[in-house]
Amino acid sequence: MTDPDSNPPEPTDLEPIPLQRSTPPGTGPLLSIRDLYVDFATDDGVVHAVDGVSFDVYRNETLGIVGESGSGKSVTSMAILGLLPSSAKVSGEIIFDGRQLRGASEKELQPVRGQRIAMIFQDALASLNPVRSVGRQIEEAIHVHHPKVGRRELRERSVELLSIVGIPNPGDRVDQFPHEYSGGMRQRAMIAMSISNEPDLLIADEPTTALDVTIQAQVLDVLERIQDRTESSIMLITHDLGVVAGIADRVAVMYAGRQVEIGSVDDIFYAPKHPYTEGLLASLPRLDRRADKESRLHRIGGQPPSLIHLPSGCSFHPRCPYADAEHGCTTRRPELLEVGIGHRSACLTPDVVGSVLGGSTFGEST
Amino acid sequence: MTIELETTAYADPVARSQWWLFRRRFVRHRAAMISLGVLTVIALACFGANWFAPFDPNEQDLLLGPVSPDGTHWLGTDELGRDQLSRLLISGQISLKIGFAVALISTLLGTAIGAVAGYFGKVSDQVLMRTTDLFLIVPQLAILAVALVRWGRTDLTIILVVSFVFWMSTARVVRGQVLAIREKEFVEAARAAGAGRVRIIIRHILPNVFGPVMVNATLAIAGAIVTESTLSFLGFGVDPPATSWGQMLNDAKGAVGTSKSYLLYAPGAAILFTVLCVNFIGDGLRDAFDPQNEKH
Predict the structure, then answer these.
(1) Which of A83, A171, A194 sits opposite B188 (nearest CB)?
(2) Chain A residue closest to B211 (CA)?
(3) For A248-289, how does the pLDDT look when each residue is reduced to its tens digit (9 = 90+)?
(4) In angstroms, what is the C-alpha Rg of chain A?
């Protein structure tokens, strides 16, 4: 009954593969995540922080990952770099440039961290060491991976990096301490540090959340310019759909640790195929809609579920306007299935999405 | 001229090295600067005493006996007719040596133990911290006495043995601080940048622990000088004719409440001023090491 060619054996062996390439470098997606699960054992039960996530990040693209707080966005990024505490149980595959990162040792991960994959954290003030000057911290980021580079060159590099990210007077600013920088400058200094080794992948975890709108725009602009310069990929984690719309090529939407939809920016914004995505978009304030009684801001009713006791079937069904026992929404866990070219949704009734909230929320008809 | 000054005040900050900033903050700490001056004078007087002490500190003049401070003997003499000023200066050499050496060694030891326990946690934390507790509950004077009898009473053995019972408070303070700081985001950011454990501890965590460590070190200097006095009192101090401030106090213990009580004041004041100066300097260092401290 089974044909060995069309039905290859499932990879049951999830043991970490040593850091050797399974595909030649420079081919295939840069980062490929398959069936990633992250569980935390707590006194109240097991928290399923990431519950079966699969996506690819291609070369020189920007993938936005959106979802509300606690949907597993940050945990996913921490898992990639192996930064989760040892209490986290991680399974699945994290293939970066053909090499398995899940289960790799600290020693194997250290050359990857900061050099091939760099991370930009949300709170730049907390992420910079308060007792060391910004320049010293950038120099260190280079020195860790290139110990042979001399002092003078390190300093020149860090001044250059500060000017790349648009810090005024970088020659003077390089000797200042984080608390002497403004919020936007700190975030740019963080970016300077993260790009110091020209990484292939930049993971930006809510890089603009703590900043006001004008500074947000500047920081995003810096990210885009850097991507043009170094042809790196960016994984942009945010809960701000506006930021994603501006900078991302593709978007993955997460809800309660699960990935509910992934597709191009146009697919997600103009033709969402998951009720949660649709609800998120409908709850954005719109400049082109009048604020009268009929068009009050949409809200998604209910609360996000507990990650310990997830609802049966589709975890979004208690809040879903389309949920329907006939389709098995309450009993069957939906899989992420193709609904268009490069557009996948984890909904059992993707075709009815849009009928309640009145079609595509960012429709061209406006 | 005035205009020029004003433009400089508003100009962009000038590039300055961290050492320069550190020094400026320290120099502006008045109490620390005065203390540094006083301590320097004390140290120079003590270590230069071999050249300019008015009398031989060990030369006895039994016929003279104890005399109150006068023009010849500024701080008087003791029962054996020894000049107190000369003895005070020579004693200071051993007291200062013991104080600073113990503080240095015990701080290094305590910081290393505390940092390893705090950063690596788990088994190493349990083992190191229970060892620390063990050292804290064991009667220290008994250990010191036994060790000094066993290995002899020279300044070197006193320094080593006293250091060995002085590192615990530093270790506990450092462990507590490291536990808090290793959870800070900049440590995670350093890990995400590919930094190894040793680098994270030395470059990122320990500089943030400097303040409390400095305070502990100054306390250790004071504590070591006092502990040395106690040991001298019990007869486990440096061997005569070598002497220390503590030894002098103990030699004069019979003078309490008599006309010879001046014998207590000089060594007592020497200990007091040294400890006070050290505390102020520690305070200044801690403030200077904190880059967010830019009060003018």
Answers:
(1) A83
(2) A131
(3) 999 999 999 999 999 999 999 989 999 999 888 888 877 766
(4) 22
